[in-house]
Every structure is written in structure tokens, then in C-alpha cells.
Input
Amino acid sequence: YRPQSFKEVIGQESLVSIFQNAAKQNKLAHAYLFYGPRGTGKTTTARLVAKVANCQKEKEVAKTGEPCNKCSTCKDITSGRAMDVIEIDAASNRGIDEIRNLKETIRLS
Output
């Protein structure tokens, strides 16, 4: 189970507040790097940030700081099919060949 909204994230209150406020003000950065111990919510938080950054219901995001989870973009991010979101697992993508492939993928996007 992964939280589908920031309000469902446990133990990262200050981080959630920062991202919600940035989403409400339309001031999300162009990139974020998440790191830390396993099981601390890095992937979940990254997916939520991707959702609020790309959600088609911009007015809802501006009001609540939460993704709608109903539009096609939010659904695609949830299912891992979003064309505009590339999720990288550093544990399995640390070699030079993986980085070269990633650079090529991004260049062609």
C-alpha cells in the first residue's frame, strides 16, 4: 500500500508541508533528489510530487496542495505508465551504462 495523497503520508509532516505549499503556490522545482534509508517514503513522496506537478486539475492542486488522483495523468503516474515521469531506482541503476541509457532516454523525451 502506498499513500495516494500527502495527508496519508506518515512521519514526514514537515516535508509534506513544504511540498503542499510549493504545489499551492505553483513553485515546485524542476527536479528533486530523494535519498535516505529504505522505507522512509522516498518513492511515495516522489510520486506524489510528480502527481501535483502534472495533475490536470490545476485549480484543485492550487487549493489543496493535493493531486486529484482522478485525471488521466494522476492515474498514469499511479500505474507507472506516465510518459513525462521517469522513476529511477538508484540501487539498481548505478552503473555507467545505466546512466548513459538514462541520458539517451531523457534526450529523446
